[in-house]
Amino acid sequence: MWSRRRSGVSSHDVAALRGPVRRTLAIRLVLVIGALVLLAAAAASASNLETRERGLLPSGSTGVVVLDLSLSIADEDYLAVRRALRRLVADDAPIGLVVFSDVPYELLPPGTPASELRPMLRLLVPPALGPPVNPWSQTFRAGTRISSALALAQEMLERDGVENGSILLVSDLETAPDDVPQLARTVAGLKRSSISLRVVPLAPSSDARLIFAGLLDEDAFAVPLGSDAERLPLASEARSRLPVGLLVLGGFLFVVLAAHERFGGRLALPRPGRTA
User: Fold this and answer.
1) CATH number of the domain bearing residue 158
2) Which of 65, 178, 204, 249 could be 208's S-S partner, Cβ–Cβ 3.0 to 4.6 Å?
3) Do residue 117 and residue 252 come from a single domain?
4) Start-to-end C-alpha separation, the chain
5) DSSP structure string for 128-186
6) ∠ CA 165-125-170 to the nearest 5 degrees?
7) What is the pLDDT at residue 137?
8) 254 vs 46: CA distance, rounded Å
9) In the predicted model, is pLDDT for residue 259 greater than 70?
10) Region for residue 60 given its phi and psi (left: phi exceeds 0; alpha: psi -120 to 50; beta: otherwise)
11) Tens digits of per-residue pLDDT, 29-73?
């Protein structure tokens, strides 16, 4: 008759093995805890990739682009304006559009496909290249009031019941001096309403930089305030960046798992023979 014998190593000096057993257990616990920490860090790094390599608008939001067409916009700024609109078209997010100088105008309602911005590109040419051809130039007067444009964008989002709304201000940030208090109140109202506000600054003056830096967080700016000449990255360039942090964490996790198998794995024993 066959009987099943419990696998193990026969030893008459089990007490001598208690030290190595404890050391092995401690090594295994340290390596397992390290692996779990690295796994959690890798997961957090992966979840933040979209945040670090974001588009001009928050992912999943419906944005209203607020475009400054005042006389203070320099010829070279139109290149940045066109580049920003091309990137929005490439990202293909639902948007609305407001153009403004002293008075804001709603051109596209929230939820419009960003591809509808393409016809705008032929109208946004530097005045030095020819007479202004956009249909708003004749109705704009001297002066800029950013607060009224932002208020209109907020009104559009609330009117259409947009839950995850955002605003992208493309401007040199120069507003009338008497508009600054109202601008501060408007930005504060946006924060209370949970509407995200981001800015593409077009070579703002030091005073304008100071005002908006005091009103907004640093990450609200699409490019750093001090580097207005920096080229806005295309969406394809943002997507192609290598997630170095995630790869490093993954490499460390692989090393820890390999160390666990090398130093903390169970001793492999041959199967016990069968006896009658």
Assistant:
1) 3.40.50.410
2) 204
3) no
4) 5
5) GGSS--STTTTT--S---HHHHHHHHHHHHHHTT-SSEEEEEEE-----GGGHHHHHHH
6) 25
7) 57
8) 17
9) no
10) left
11) 766 776 677 677 767 766 655 444 457 888 888 899 999 888 777
Same domain, 43 and 165: no
Distance (Å, whole) CA 117 – CA 110: 13
Q: Is 84 helix (H, G, I), strand (E, B) or coil?
A: helix
> Is residue 38 domain-shared with residue 145, that is, in the same domain?
no
Q: 42 with 127, same domain?
A: no
Asked whether residue 39 falls in the same domain as residue 147, the answer is no
> Measuring CA to CA, how many Å separate 175 from each of 141, 195, 219?
13, 21, 21
Query: For the whole model, what pTM was predicted?
Result: 0.62
Q: Which helix (H) or strand (E) holds 81?
A: helix 77-91
Are 257 and 120 in the same domain? no
Q: Residue 210: what residue type? A: L
Domain membership of residue 14 (yes or no) is no
Domain-embedded: residue 6:
no
Whether the pLDDT of residue 272 is over 60: the answer is no
Contact 133, 123 (CB under 8 A): yes
Give the residue, 142 or 104, on which the prediction is more confident. Answer: 104
Domain boundaries, position 106: 56-239
Let me know whether 186 and 162 are in one domain: yes
Q: Do 41 and 172 have their domain in common?
A: no
Instruction: Give the count of beta carbons closer than 10 Å to the beta carbon of residue 84.
Output: 21
Torsion of CA 172, 174, 175, 181, to 10 degrees: 100
Domains in the chain, number: 2
